Every structure is written in C-alpha cells, then in structure tokens.
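re: ur msg from earlier - yeah i can do the iron/sulfur cluster complex, just paste it... oh wait u already did. ok heres what im feeding in:
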Amino acid sequence: MDKPVRHIMGLSGGKDSTALAIYMRDRVPEMEYFFCDTGAELLETYEYLAKLEVYLGKKIVRLSSERNFDHWLKIYRGALPSPNMRWCTKVLKIEPLERWIGTDKAISYVGLRADEASRKGYMSKKKNMMSIFPFIDDGLELRDIESLLIESGLGKPSYYEWRTRSGCYFCFYQRKSEWIGLHDSHPDLFERAVAYENKKGYQETASKEAYTWSQGESLEQLLARRNLLKTSVAHPRSSGLLLDILAEDDDDDESFCASCHL
Ligand code: SF4
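and the outut:
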C-alpha cells in the first residue's frame, strides 16, 4: 500500500508561518510542523516556538544540518553567505528538510501572504514535494495575519521590537537599523558576527575582497557611524531620528528568503 501523503509546514519563528500554523491547526490535524535550526537562532525564536507548541498541542520537529555553520563556512572557503551566494539556506535549511522527507510525497504549506504573492522565495525543488499557499489562495493579507496572531494570544515574537524578520542573528538580509538593534539587544551576538567578518585566514584563502554582512561597510564601521551620529551635537538629526538616518541606507526590503523569513 502507498504511504499516505505527508502534510508539512515549516516554521521560522516569524509571524507569517506562525499565523499559518494557527490558521491551519484545525483544518489539517495531521500536519507535521518543523523548524530548521541553523544553530544561529535568537533565544526569542526558541521562546516563541515553545509558546506555539503549546497552542498547537504538538511538538515542532527540529531539523538541522549534520555539520554546523562554521564547518560550511570553511567548505565555502570563508565566503560569508550573501543574497547572491545563499549557501546557508541550502545547507542549513533545504538539505535537512529534503533528508527528513526523503522520497515521501508531501504537501508543504507556505505562509506567503496574498499582499506579497509576487515575491519569490527559495524553496526545495524536489518533485515529491508540492508547495501550496493557503493565504494567497484565501486572499489573506498582512492585517488578517496580525488579527490571527492577536486573537490566538500569541502575538508577535519579541524580537520584532528591533527586527522585522526571523532568521539567524547574523542574517545578511537585516537592515542596517536591525544590526544596530542586534548590537543593543544582544551585544554578544553582535560581537560574534563581527568576529566572522574579521576572521583571519578565511579571507586570505578566498579572495582579496573583504566579506561583510551588511552591504558596503563592516559592522564595526556601521557601529562607529551610529556612535558618531549619537554623540554629534552638531548633527541636526542626531538623536531621535538616528534609526531613520541609518534606515536611509537600507537595502531593498523586498529581498527575503521563504525558508527563513516567513
Ligand atoms: S536566516 Fe539568513 S543567514 Fe540564516 S540561513 Fe536564512 S538566509 Fe541564511
């Protein structure tokens, strides 16, 4: 007899995938929830997932690569992942998922919203896994997702106070203001991200180019710029609008990763 089709949903610890889990809980009771743990997650993400497990009444399966980020960084010759070279998603998210599914037929429920339907995400291309998008099919937009989160009592994860999406603490998709938020909320993690940029040896073997997490400057330079703005009494916008100033440098906010940021 054929194995039954599996119904799976990836949770990133972000608001959209959480809202989809709330939305689907009673619609697909056999749903298997999973979380790809990169080993570089925020504490707030684990706390939020624990609350979600209580709401769902089910365990969220943790998937991870057999080797950690540092191992893969060596394999990629010290090249930090970036929007153009997103090896982290492949080895830390997609491959563990594909191993978990194997040859089973599966329907993967993805939390892309109707108001962002044109965005493209990075997902598994395995033929035995079909992705469906219930929010798009049912026309649910941001305000609906926010209502689902409020009505469930879960609300948003606490990191949304300083960051707009889920994912690794060092995710290169972060806005510059979010890097500052990481520095102020988790100085130890900010220092670890700085250490990756400064890691000697990697850059010598990889290329002459300096790898930085944030476009155009190192994290130390970004922090120095923030501190200069903070202390400059001469700057007309130096205090209350500080984050707005840094936000002016932000990259296109349309960049995202469907595996990490929903
Ligand atoms: S959250 Fe960012 S750094 Fe982490 S795996 Fe996803 S794209 Fe890579």
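cool cool. The two ends are 35 Å apart (CA to CA). ping me if u need the other ligands too
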